[in-house]
Amino acid sequence: MNHLLWLLVVVPLVSAGVLLLAGRRSDSWGHLLATAVSTVTFGFAIALFGKLRGLDGERLLTSKGYEWIPIGSLHVRFGLRLDVLSICFVLLITFVGTLVHVYSIGYMDHDPGRRRFFAYLNLFIAAMLLLVLADNFLLLYVGWEGVGLASMLLIGFWGGVPANATAAKKAFVVNRVGDVGLGIAVMTMFATVGALGFDQVFARAADMSKGTLTAICLLLLLGACGKSAQFPLHVWLPDAMAGPTPASALIHAA
């Protein structure tokens, strides 16, 4: 069952790669593949929800993966974690994402770039799932940046219009401003704790000074303000409507 954690992220990511690399050969079926993949991930999410419900004691599934970064005292594993909070987000992401895929089949029916659009939708789903399933702050940051990349690609999908390209660039740059806060927060955690795993950081939180804790929390909040378009990093959201309507629905839902 723990292998489903990896499939949740890998399947839509591979699908996005196939659609982008296959080119026009997949124009006739690319949208169907992407929608089927999103539907399958929702099925995986339901299976994992049932597994969590059946566990006695702590409802937690983990997959340690492999050691991603072994440099000096920094050891980060490419691991995933599913608990009662993250399964709520996994169900929302896959269910709402599948609805957006289904709606997009008709909405993008006559668009010559439909295959590319569905590849970006799959990429967005994969990045969101990595974001909520990561078991450490550095891997969370990777998913965070993936969501920002997919958002830019969706907003600027009709990039032949200069205003649309500008809107995509604006969203990308403003989000990066917020992500500076997230990046500094991650570095501060490592400098203070010497590790980036959620369990390790939370276990040492009580030993941190109030100033360090406050700084980390405010920096994390800055990142969240950028991604969720909160003041003062809200300026990109109105321009996000430059993308196709299904893309706007997915970004707002995220």
Description:
By secondary structure, this protein is mainly alpha-helical. The protein has nine helices and two strands. The chain has helices at 3-22, 30-53, 84-107, 114-133, 137-155, 162-193, 198-204, 210-227, 245-253; strands spanning 60-71, 74-83. Strands 1-2 form a two-stranded antiparallel ribbon. The mean pLDDT is 89.
Give keywords.
single chain, mainly alpha, 2 strands
Assembly type of the shown chains?
single chain
The average pLDDT is: 89
Helical fraction: 55-70%
Distance N to C terminus? 26 Å
Structural class of the helices, strands and pairings? mainly alpha
Count every helix, treating DSSP H or I runs of 4 or more residues as helices. Answer: 9
Give start-end ranges of low-pLDDT stretches: none
Element-level helix/strand string:
HHEEHHHHHHH
Characterize the largest beta sheet: strand count, sense, and whether it forms a barrel: 2 strands, antiparallel
